[in-house]
Each structure stands twice: as C-alpha cells, then as structure tokens.
What we know:
Two copies of one chain form a homodimer.
Chain A: E1 3-8, E2 12-18, E3 24-31, H1 35-46, E4 53-58, H2 87-95, E5 99-103, H3 104-115, E6 124-129, E7 133-139, E8 142-143, H4 176-180, H5 182-189, H6 202-221, E9 226-229, H7 238-250, H8 262-265, E10 266-267, H9 275-292
Parallel strand pairs in A: 1-4, 4-5, 6-9, 9-10
Antiparallel strand pairs in A: 1-2, 2-3, 6-7, 7-8
Amino acid sequence: MIIGAIEAGGTKFVCGIGNEHGEISDRISFPTEEPGKTTQKAADYFKDKGIEALGVGSFGPLDLDTSSATYGHVTTTPKPGWANYDLLGHLKKELNVPAGFDTDVNAAAFGEARWGAAQGLDSCLYYTVGTGIGVGVYAGGRLIHGLIHPEGGHVLVRRHPDDTFAGACPYHGDCLEGMAAGPAIAKRWGQSGDSLSEDHPAWDIEAHYLAEAITGAILLLSPKKIILGGGVMYQNQLFPLIRQKVAKNLNGYVASSALDDLDRYIVPPGLGDNAGLVGSVALGVEAAGRLRA
Amino acid sequence: MIIGAIEAGGTKFVCGIGNEHGEISDRISFPTEEPGKTTQKAADYFKDKGIEALGVGSFGPLDLDTSSATYGHVTTTPKPGWANYDLLGHLKKELNVPAGFDTDVNAAAFGEARWGAAQGLDSCLYYTVGTGIGVGVYAGGRLIHGLIHPEGGHVLVRRHPDDTFAGACPYHGDCLEGMAAGPAIAKRWGQSGDSLSEDHPAWDIEAHYLAEAITGAILLLSPKKIILGGGVMYQNQLFPLIRQKVAKNLNGYVASSALDDLDRYIVPPGLGDNAGLVGSVALGVEAAGRLRA
C-alpha cells in the first residue's frame, strides 16, 4: 500500500511516502509559506508517487466535523493567509484520493498507538512541548473530537510555589502553554531552554507544570500511556522529574498497576521525531480502509 | 423490551424496570448493606419481571476491563465488605441475562446522551456533585475507559483567592472533590450547604472550583455538552456563576459557537434525578443489542 502523508506544521511541511506498516520510504520538507503555494508544493511532490490514499496531520485549529460545510479547513489561526483555508479540499482536488485529516497531535497519538510506544493499546495521550503545547487524545480505540478537537495545551495549572513568571499565553496568561512552552521558558529565564544546564531550577518548574496537566488528564481519562514529545522534551532530565511529581499528585488514588511503573507509563515517543508523519500515514491507511469497506 | 436497571450507590441501591425508550415503569430502592444481602435483594426484585437484559451503573472503583479475570468487580473501595466484590458476577449468576456494567457516572452520561440533555450528541460529560464528585465521560460515541475509568472528581484545581480551606480529600487535600463536594462545603463553613443563603460567598467559591475543572475538561476533550447533577447542584444559583467563570477562563480561545451560548452548554440533567437509573437502562439496552448482534 502506498500512502501519502503530510505533517502540516505552522513552520514547515513534511511530506512522505509510507505503507501499511508505518514505514517511511521517502520524504521532503519545506517551509510553510502562503497556503496556495505551500499546498501546491505538497501536491506536486505526491503527483507521480502513485499514492492510494493521503493522511494529513495539521496545525490548527481545524474543522474536523465531517458533516460541516467547512470540514477540512484550518479555521481561526492568526497565521497570515491560513485562516479559513480549505487545506484538505485543495489537496483532495489535486490528488483525488481518499484522505484522512486530523490535528498534528491527534495524528501523532494515532501513530504511537499503531506503531509506537502505545502499540496495541486502545488509549494514549500524546503531548508535544515545543514552541506551543498540543495534546492528542486517543481513547476507546479512536481519536477524540468534539465541539472541535483537544486543545489540552491550554489547561489551567496550579503555580509552582517558586515561580513568579506571569505567563506568556495571549489568551490565558499562565495556562500550561503560557508557563511551559519553549517561549515561556525563554522569557522566564532570559535565555532559551537549550542553553540552561541540566540541573538548572528551570527544569523543576517545567516538570511541575507538565505534571499538573498530566495528572489532570490521568484522572479525567485514565489513558493507558502518556507520550511526551517535542523540542523541550529533548531535555531528558525532565522525565524522572515529571514522573515523580505525577506520582506525588496522584498519591496512590488511581489503583492500576501501570501507575506503579511510571518509567513505562510516561515515555518519549516510540517513533521519535517521526510520530507526526507516521501518524499521518496511519490516517491515510485508515482512509484507504474506509474506501474499501 | 424489558430491561432491568440498577443504580448501585454507596448509600442506596435503586432498581427499576425500563424499556428501549428509556422509560421507567417500576422502581424500588433500599439501603446499601453488606454486598451479599444487597445484591440478593436486587436479584429478588428482578426475578419475576421477565427482564431480557440488565444494566448496572455502580459506585467504584470498578474493574471494567472485559478481558480481566476480575471484570465486573468493585475493587479498592473502603466500603466495608465491598472491596474486591464480584458485583456483576453475582447478579449475572442469579439473573442469567446479558448485562452492561459501568460506573454510576458513566451510566448517567450515557443516559443523558441517549434520552436527556445531550440527546443525539456523540459526546458529553456528566458531573455529579454531592457527597463526592464523579465524572462520566462519553466521547466519540462511547463511554470512556482506560487503565480504569474516569476519576475526574479528583482533578487538581487552582485555589480561589479568598479560600483558605485546607481541603477535605484524604488523598489529595485540595483537589476538586476536596474543595467542592458537599462535605468540603460543610467543613469550610461549619454548616451544610443547604443552610447557606443563595447569596452566601460559599457559592462563588464553589462555582470557582467547578469552573476550573470544567474549563480543563473542555480544553482537553471539547465535549458537546456539560451536564451538572447531584445534590449540590440543586443550588441553581451555581449555574450562572459557573458559566461566567468558564467563559472568563476560556477567554474565547476555543472557537465554537456552542461556547457562545453557555446557558445551553452547561446544563442540569435532562433526566433530572433519574439520570443514573435511566443510564443503567441504556447500558442494559446496549447489552441486549450485543446479544442479538
């Protein structure tokens, strides 16, 4: 099966060719420019590849309601030119194959559930912690949508007792993204996270906010795996700190043996930096299956 | 279709007879005593009723993993005699009909989605705010389970700035349940919520904590309806306060027209106090369907 996949990010587009085992045989990437030009570049890449279906994991917010007149559109983004852009429609018109479409983080959660750290499980959460924070939710064997789609990067969090930073989110100030995304770290410390030592107090504060959000998600949804990706999570020292704080927060309340072994429960992506692209392959495989069914 | 339904609470059992339209034709209720005696009383009630299937919405925590050896058991409850009790097994042995089984709050969410305030929607959250706080999660057209099941009554919440109460949860202190369940209100004010006037500052504090949790759930899951039931929610003045605070928390971030009209989005149960029992009927109807499929 030849599947086209697009990880449509706000900064760059990654396009690739994958198969029903989640293997990637080819890829390109290019900067995200104005939507017509960017989409055309993607379509041109796929045109001679013989793809049977397409999967697209995109930055948002998106309209994912298949009964909506604007299904497949990017909706209210501040990104110039992209608001109300019919991303899926333009791609389908050019490529004329069945297509799956979801948020970049839902795609990554799906990829991890198919072929990554949550393989074989019917639920997982995928957090990306980078220039923003996004959360993909896979539960009951499907990706979760609702009014729109998960926007769990903006959940409210209790403050770290030593933290006086006001927060960097233009909507909420000190929500999770406002306190813990890359730009918040840089603003709080006056230098980028990359340049801070492993034992800098920044990481205890960072782990605090991520643990607050993760604890809330465990209590609300009871997911079978929590996967943390994105640039900030290259700071490997965060994992043990986060696990420690989540254990302290839960305090034994949720009785599941999985939570006795957080080293295996809160983990980096099994697919590494490919989670989004491979997840988009999974969306494409699903779309191909829907066609045959 | 004749469906047996049990709302198995920690204080009382409600048993009833319902049909595929969610209508209840008969019911009894009795105190929850030791498990053998209580379960037998329920089974005796149904024995001459000709039920085709049974639905049970129970207090928890529960084992809901159908592949588990202890599926259908109440698990770690401190309630004397009930820990590790095979509730579903005992009922099935006595009644020998297909049975659906879930938490009381998941059952209520399901009932509301079938025949109540979320009728026709594929997602909703059901909160009960009473002696404890529980949350049922219906998403993507199904009830959500995971490691165990939603325990969203214990999510972490930011403090109300005027509140110095330490919190009443034995596990987490000042989690949602520890700050906002009936016993927390009584402990904070030295008198039960029922005896406080409608304009008492208690209700602003109460609304704050519920709004914190609801905001987090909207951001993480984007549910199509939020339903608030339970004894504390008889305080109708809470609804406008909660809606106001949720709107302020979200600050327009989640772009959905449903959130422009919170009077229709954050609502009391359409099924009133019957949500749990009628939801258990829905579980029974589903179990009967599975048998025929």
